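Hi, here's the filled form for the chain we discussed.

Project: internal
Contact: R.S.
Residues: 89
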Amino acid sequence: MKKVLSLLSITVLITSCGSKLVDPLAGCEKSAEKFTAATTAFFTDFTSKSKCEAFKSAASNYLKDCPSLTVAEVKEANDAIKDLNCNNL
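And the returned structure, exactly as it came back:
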């Protein structure tokens, strides 16, 4: 249950600022699309290690490419990403 809550908090943090995005970087929109696709794939199959790793990678890339969150929000999201262990699914 803790994993699910962590995943939901990552998703909420990252997507909550989506409406504020004015794409200052070329890769932001593409990263957002990849993150959305990876989130959907992983949330439909919590037992897939490859989908978990793709989710973590897409979330990290989104945080790097789309500077729409505060430093504290980025730190919280990165900590939650690091806490997600894809080997224990």
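Let me know if anything looks off before we file it.
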